[in-house]
Backbone:
């Protein structure tokens, strides 16, 4: 009789433990999902900021090239020579 009672009590404790682990697993899933979403949001925001900065820089450079086309060609030629010399070695 005592063995049966202790077995039943042990079974109840095991069931409670399973429920606790299931709840813990669900909580961890929710927390990791929330952290992943926050990370995605931060990455998207950073990418959008970087994209905007690149667009602004491109517009600025394009304006400079249009304002000074000969200087731009000379600079591009000089950069090409330097890169060619570096790669030639």
Residues:
């Amino acid at each position: 009789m005592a063995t049966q009672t202790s077995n039943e009590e042990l079974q109840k404790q095991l069931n409670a433990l399973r429920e606790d682990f299931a709840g813990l697993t669900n909580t961890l899933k929710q927390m990791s999902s929330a952290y992943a979403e926050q990370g995605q949001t931060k990455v998207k925001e950073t990418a959008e900021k970087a994209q905007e900065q690149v667009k602004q820089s491109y517009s600025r450079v394009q304006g400079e090239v249009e304002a000074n086309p000969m200087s731009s060609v000379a600079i591009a030629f000089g950069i090409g020579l330097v890169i060619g010399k570096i790669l030639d070695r």
